[in-house]
TrEMBL record, chain A:
Residues 7-80 form the Transcription regulator PadR N-terminal domain. It comes from Actinacidiphila epipremni. This is PadR family transcriptional regulator. SUPFAM superfamilies: Winged helix' DNA-binding domain. It holds the Pfam family PadR.
From TrEMBL, chain B:
It comes from the Bacteria. InterPro entries: AAA+_ATPase, ABC_transporter-like_ATP-bd, ABC_transporter-like_CS, ABC_transpr_LolD-like, MacB-like_ATP-bd, P-loop_NTPase. This is ABC transporter ATP-binding protein. The keyword Transmembrane does not apply. The lineage of its organism: Bacteria, Bacillati, Actinomycetota, Actinomycetes, Kitasatosporales. CDD domains: ABC_MJ0796_LolCDE_FtsE. Residues 13-234 form the ABC transporter domain. One of its GO terms (molecular function) is ATP binding. PANTHER family: ABC TRANSPORTER RELATED, IMPORT ATP-BINDING PROTEIN.
Amino acid sequence: MNVPLTLLGLLERQSSHGYDLKRDYDTYFSPTKPLLLGQVYSTLGRLARDGKVVVGPAEPGAGPDRKRYVITERGATEVEAWLTEPVEAEQHLQTELFTKVVLALMLGRDASAYLDLQRAAHVARMRALTEIKRQGPLVDKLLADHSMFRLEADLRWIDVTQARLGALAEEVCK
Amino acid sequence: MSGAAGPDAAALLEARAAVLAFGRTPALRGTDLRVARGEIVAVMGPSGSGKSTLLHCLAGILVPDSGEILFDGRRVDRMREAERSELRRDRFGFVFQFGQLVPELTAEENVAMPLLLGGARRGTALTEARDWFPRLGLEGLERRRSGELSGGQAQRVALARAMVARPDVLFADEPTGSLDTYTGEQVMELLVDAVRANGTTAVIVTHDARVAACADREVMVRDGKVTSPHLERTGP
């Protein structure tokens, strides 16, 4: 997650205090892993140093949190560029999973049983996410959906690997 | 009804060492499965693994060559065809991949079918059938024929037909297999809500992990046998 650009994006929506920014970030983008307030202020400090935000004057009756941050033209340009660029289509190979299967085969262990267990763990996680989807707000549903599609990709890999275990064993045990 | 009932609770439905071959091709090779009352179990497995054959044996559509099939303590595999037919009609509901509605009938007539076959009067059956339409988001579609329904609508009508007689067990074979992800998810939510509300036990054959994730637990069928990693870990 690109925290600085996400905060900038939230600031383009409307100028904001640091604490309100943190609250919006946590609500929409990271409900299970909230940002530390210190990280929010250090990020805002860097954005101000780089001319992407400006800090408004302290507001009346205010504590340290009563400064309003406003995005600059430069910041807005950066957000626009970021939002139109595709994310790199990374190859999300689960290296540990792959390593375990290959090593199990090399060592004559039961790779099939391991894959079955891994499969059960994946489906159990999907079941927990399904429960979140049934009860949670739409933002949580969408985040859960994304996790589920990634888990599904792993499951497909597990199924295909399960079907190819014999051939894979021959190859890695030469 | 919650999904608290696990595989160790008293079984409503059970396969014991079921063996079945089609000619010389083995489909089930000593399959065991216990399903507790009120439980939703997903049966997964590769194509040709025997998962649909297992469902057909549990539902009394097929009879295994050897082994036992038990429903509510009764030996389904020893019943005559007429008895099994009666069991399927009175105690079980079915949802298949393509709805399989009767095209000549309206949606409400399709839903009423199990009640009519069970001897209900037409008016009563149609009234009960119509109750299901708002519950499944099908208001206004009562008089449509299957050709005039979308895939998701047809599958919801099929679900209503399967549940209208309040079956003890719902058997579903790839119930979302012909639907896109979003529509399939809606159908599964309605299916789970309906079986939970009715206390119905459900056996769902699927290759889709998202569908399996709606169940209380899943089992894998591979080469005609049920494998369950959890059971293996606690075995001797």
